[in-house]
Specification:
The chain is of the alpha+beta class. It has 4 domains: 4-31 and 138-173, no CATH class; 34-131, 2-Layer Sandwich (Beta-Lactamase); 178-295, PAS domain (Beta-Lactamase, 2-Layer Sandwich), CATH 3.30.450.20; 333-498, Alpha-Beta Plaits (2-Layer Sandwich). The chain has 16 helices and 17 strands. It has helices at residues 4-27, 34-54, 62-75, 98-101, 138-144, 146-173, 181-189, 208-213, 218-221, 244-251, 297-332, 342-358, 373-380, 382-399, 423-438, 463-479, and strands at residues 79-86, 91-94, 112-119, 122-131, 193-198, 203-206, 231-232, 255-263, 269-280, 286-295, 363-370, 405-408, 413-419, 441-442, 445-446, 449-455, 485-487. The strands form 4 sheets. The protein has a 6-stranded antiparallel β-sheet. Helix 13 (373-380) crosses helix 14. The radius of gyration is 60 Å and the shape is rod-shaped.
Length: 502
């Protein structure tokens, strides 16, 4: 298993732990301290030198003392110089460069030692000794310190040995190593992503397809957690992100078709349909899960495009439907009055007739004709004639019910269908309309109209017969003096063709 990041992290941790233990042992005094040993050696050297000088008659044997001091300095490389000084401050003897190394006012230290010399009369003077700096002072001293060098050796050697040991151990502990190479190769061939995770969501196996989506390799996916991957929450206001495998690990449930969204660097946001199934041990406990990720991003994009096209198609259909309704309305309505035209009348009349036959059996039909309309046109012109027609249409609409149908049957003729009204009720409504028209005028012109009423009570054979009966009654109203309402009765005395045109 090639996991250098994990190996390096563990190696650094072990090296740090080892160095820390060595430093703790040094602090506890479990390791020898070279500085302390050096101080003791210097103390013994100075005491020995002081004893040997003290037993000699210094004033008479100055040459012997000088030879002794130089001999001892030569034998100890740590000693840089030595000198013999009286209490008066006179320097009786010295080794090379002692005057430079030992200046007046020099403070006692491990590198500058003063050993008092006594005679029978008291203190005679002092022996001055200069030593090399103790280990650990200055950069050179730190680098030459055995303990520091030991730490460096352990850091370097431990890093190499720990790395090799851990790498070998992890190779044997690699959970994916138990999966045959042919099985891993088969998983890598799959277009959908496949991940095996333990009960703590740690990835123990990933195929190449899923790793590629994250611009990484299957080996680098190991050790990561499924939850730590860059998942997106499309609806944060709805709550926390739902992980498909959570219910599988907690409850052992198989989850299928759970949509999740993965944020990748180079492939954008990917829409994945996630399926997860539990992996159980011999005791039946859930110890992991196998998760598959089916990338449906392109399908989602195509579905979005299709939905857009369907919306556009629906909008087009709605527009066509509205236009068709407008065209249909134009086809069945009179442009001057807004009432139904002859075509619209027949469509509505047939439907109303069929309903009346099935239900109440009541349906009245009223024909209305403006009296002397030809004279109005000839006298005042067609513009005034159109105003008169429009005024009549307004009066009919105002006086009729909402369920009644009003149509312009011809030039100055109108037809009204009155559902659920008997002949008597239809005649009463026609009379009210006649009176309303007689009370109105247009540009000072008084207008009257004649009305003919028929009903299904007279048992017409069909809707066309009902219309003809009302038309025959209108003819009689015009023949009998106009401006009146006449009901149809059997037998028909006159045919519509015999009506007066005015």
């Amino acid at each position: 298993m090639n996991v250098p990041q994990h190996t390096i992290r563990i190696t650094l941790g072990l090296v740090t732990l080892t160095l820390g233990l060595l430093m703790l042992g040094q602090f506890a005094g479990l390791l020898p301290d070279q500085r302390l040993s050096e101080l003791k050696a210097r103390q013994q050297f100075c005491e020995t030198l002081a004893v040997q000088v003290s037993i000699l008659p210094i004033d008479s044997s100055l040459k012997v003392v000088d030879a002794l001091v130089r001999s001892l300095v030569a034998r100890y490389p740590e000693v840089l110089s030595a000198g013999l000084r009286r209490n008066s401050g006179d320097l009786l003897l010295e080794t090379a460069e002692h005057s430079r190394l030992w200046t007046e006012g020099t403070v006692m230290s491990p590198e500058r030692v003063t050993v008092p010399i006594y005679s029978n009369s008291g203190r005679w003077g002092a022996l001055e000794v200069s030593f090399t700096p103790l280990p650990g002072t200055g950069l050179g001293g730190v680098l030459s310190n055995p303990f520091v060098r030991l730490l460096g050796f352990m850091a370097l050697a431990g890093a190499i040995l720990y790395y090799l040991l851990i790498r070998r151990a992890l190779k044997h502990l690699d959970p994916s190593a138990v999966i045959p190479a042919r099985v891993r190769a088969a998983l890598d061939v799959l277009a959908e992503g496949v991940v095996l995770a333990d009960d703590e969501e740690n990835i123990v196996l990933s195929n190449r397809s899923f790793a590629t989506k994250l611009d990484t390799t299957p080996a680098e996916m190991l050790g990561k957690t499924l939850r730590s991957l860059p998942w997106l929450n499309p609806t944060p206001e709805a709550g926390a992100l739902h992980y498909a495998w959570h219910a599988t690990l907690k409850e052992g449930r198989v989850m299928t078709g759970v949509p999740m969204y993965l944020d990748t660097n180079t492939h954008g946001t990917r829409t994945l349909m996630v399926n997860s199934a539990p992996i159980a041990d011999e005791a039946g406990r859930v110890c992991g899960t196998i998760v598959t990720f089916d990338d449906v991003t392109q399908l989602e994009e195509k579905n979005a495009e299709l939905e857009g096209m369907l919306r556009m198609l629906k909008d087009s259909q709605d527009k066509i439907h509205r236009q068709n309704k407008e065209l249909q309305s134009l086809a069945v309505k009179d442009s001057l009055t807004g009432c139904l035209n002859r075509r619209g009348l027949f469509e509505s009349l047939n439907a109303a007739f069929d309903r009346a036959q099935r239900n109440s059996g009541k349906l009245s039909c009223v024909m209305c004709d403006i009296d002397h309309f030809k004279d109005i046109n000839d006298t005042y012109g067609h513009a005034v004639g159109d105003k008169v027609i429009g005024m009549v249409a307004d009066v009919l609409r105002t006086g009729a019910r909402e369920t009644d149908v009003i149509a312009r049957y011809g030039g100055e003729e109108f037809c009204l269908m009155l559902p659920d009204l008997s002949l008597q009720q239809g005649s009463e409504l026609a009379e009210r309309l006649r009176r309303a028209l007689a009370a109105r005028d247009t540009d000072g012109i008084k207008v009257t109209a004649s009305f003919g009423v028929s009903s299904m009570e007279i048992e017409p054979a069909d809707a066309d017969s009902l219309l003809k009966q009302a038309d025959a009654a209108l003819y009689r109203a015009k023949r009998s003096g106009r401006n009146r309402v006449v009901n149809h009765t059997f037998p028909t005395d006159h045919s519509p063709e015999e009506r007066d045109a005015g």
